[in-house]
Amino acid sequence: MPDYRVIDAFTDRPLAGNPAAVLILEDAYDDAWAQGVAAEFNLSETAFARPVGGAGEGPGTDYELRWFTPTVEIDLCGHATLATAHALVELGVPGPYRFSTRSGVLTVAEREGRLWMDFPAKPPVAVAAPEGLADALGAEPLWVGVGGADDLLVEVADEAAVRGLAPDTAAIARLPYHLVIPTARADGEADFVSRVFAPRVGVPEDPVTGRAHTVLAPYWARRLGRDELSAHQASARGGDLLLEYRGDRVLIGGHAVSVARGELNL
Predict the structure, then answer these.
(1) Which of 4, 49, 110, 125 is 20 to 30 Å from 166 by CA-CA measure?
(2) Closest Cα to residue 41, out of 67, 66, 70?
(3) Residue 159 appears among annotated catalytic residues
(4) How would you classify residue 54: left for phi > 0, otherwise alpha for psi between -120 and 50, otherwise beta?
(5) How many domains does the chain have?
């Protein structure tokens, strides 16, 4: 029976950041089983890692890594990748860790007490605001862009506007985007703040989202004129990230804490 861990990512204390369930498996598994397990945990993402010994989809990788929300498999998830690397650290597996994923080969390495993920950058391209966006968010957009194919970045007036959002989740779900990411300059120590809504894939609000920062980092690097940034995701749980924008890549640094471990009776 497989073991699991629940790990809070992008935080250095329990019960904050973004929780992910992580399963390190030895053998192949059924997709329907994995989706059922993710639905049972009912966290924003559950990660399934399986050693490939260099023979997987990504040559030279160590693990195949997949992510499931409670309703669908997704192409990229930051906090569950960080959580998976943290689980491997706890298991005594030496890094760096190279994961074969739907988004290519992703690497996680430890540096100065943090785990750093190397992800593809998705610089947002300006688009017209979708009809009904302001009403759906409950705030007037200052700038709107799309990162990659399906992540919508929306700059709003200020940090208070981000924190005060009470969006119409059903209206957000009707927009043709995986993530809707409102953001603004921060008032405090961070460079910027954000929140992330993903009801289209079964996650009304994601507590802390690595994937969103592959869009946010290029945007704010351009706006602020520097490539090293600090970010705070202003969800109820909250989370902190360090970012290094490197052209076609974004390095995302954070802490993680294990809060539970056990065995599935499956």
Answers:
(1) 125
(2) 70
(3) no
(4) left
(5) 2
* pLDDT digit string, tens, across residues 5-42: 999 999 999 999 999 999 999 999 999 999 999 999 99
Strand 114-120 to 256-263 pairing? unpaired
Q: How far is CA 155 from the centre of its chain?
A: 19
pLDDT digits (tens, 9 = 90+) for 192-251: 999 999 999 999 999 999 999 999 999 999 999 999 999 999 999 999 999 999 999 999
Cα–Cα distance measured from residue 99 to residue 222, given in angstroms and rounded to the nearest whole number: 29
Residue tagged active-site, from 40, 45, 112, 159: 45
Residues 31 and 87 in one domain: yes
Question: Phi, psi (5° rounding) for residue 29?
Answer: -140, 160
Neighbours of 141 (CB within 10 A): 17
Closest CA to 152 of 183, 123, 180, 120: 180
Nearest to 196 by CA among 211, 213, 181: 181
3-state secondary structure of 88: helix
Q: What CATH number is given to the structural domain containing 154?
A: 3.10.310.10
Name the 3-class secondary structure at 146.
strand
Q: What is the C-alpha separation between 229 and 217, in angstroms, rounded?
A: 7
pTM of the predicted protein model = 0.93
Residue 25 structural domain: 3-117+254-263
